[in-house]
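Second attempt. The first submission of Tol-Pal system protein TolQ had a stray character pasted in from the spreadsheet, which I only caught after the job came back as garbage. Lesson logged: always re-copy from the clean sequence file. Corrected sequence (225 aa) follows.
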Amino acid sequence: MNADLSLFHLIKEASFIVQLVMLILVVASVVSWTYIFSKTRELAKAADIADEFEEEFWSGVELSDLYKRLTDADFEPEGIEKIFLAGYREYSRMRQKAGIDPEVQVENAQRAMKIELNRELERLDEHLPFLATVGSISPYVGLFGTVWGIMNSFRSLGNVQQATLAQVAPGIAEALIATAMGLFAAIPAVIAYNRFASRLDRLIGRYELFIDEFVVLLQRQAHSQ
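This time the job returned cleanly.
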């Protein structure tokens, strides 16, 4: 490959604006991949915790025993476990008050679980807007760098009587690198965002289904006492 058209040389010789665009895209790509790896682990862990918890929950264990285990000082509850704790804690607190209607006990427990669900959704949704932003604007940022680079390339030919492809090619090539980098940053971010959004929807659906099932259990327990 001609040294003048090598990737490193083209980036090095690009204008300041084009180099700045490339730097922004590289940083965006690095941050995106960091979030992608961390969010992959986070969602996988949340799904595993939900699997283990639901298996134990429906095994016939006493709710009070499960509550004690999850509130142990050496244990840090996460995800669906926090939702269960919020509901059972509120239910137990309301039961200790005299004259509280069973329906009110259950409604308060359900409300507490919904609040915890929203907190969990907010936590799991963190960084997804960044991936969506990178996926949507990176191609345009790269295109801006390309347009700017091509403008400079043709502007430099203004005083040249006879332009040749050899004179134009390096400038256009360095400009097109910005577009390629924009796509390189955008494509993984879009794929990851769509994948994470789908997994998050399924996980939240599981949480909501658990809340509904737990509420039915609490209603039976409240009316049987």
